[in-house]
Amino acid sequence: MAKTILVVDDEPDLVEVVRYNLEQAHYRVVTAASGSAALRRARREAPDLIVLDIMLPDLFGT
What is the mean pLDDT of each run of 10 residues along the chain (62 residues)? Predict the structure, then answer.
């Protein structure tokens, strides 16, 4: 079973580049565009790794 990575960023183009490359490396990728969406997604998906933008519009990633 593939490891799951949650990619959190509010820039859709960047998310797609990261998603594409991680999927090419055989990871399962889920995404979120805000801090609050990321929290919900992380609770639901229980990802193995989170790639997090620390300057999100609604929550800081620190």
Answer: 96 98 98 95 98 84 51
Query: How is residue 42 annotated by DSSP?
Result: H
Q: Which superfamily does 4-52 belong to? A: Response regulator (3.40.50.2300)
**pTM of the entire structure?**
0.91
Domain extents in the chain: 4-52
- The β-bridge relationship of strands 4-8 and 49-52 is parallel
- The 10 Å Cβ neighbour count of residue 41 is 19
Count CB-CB contacts under 10 A for residue 47.
19
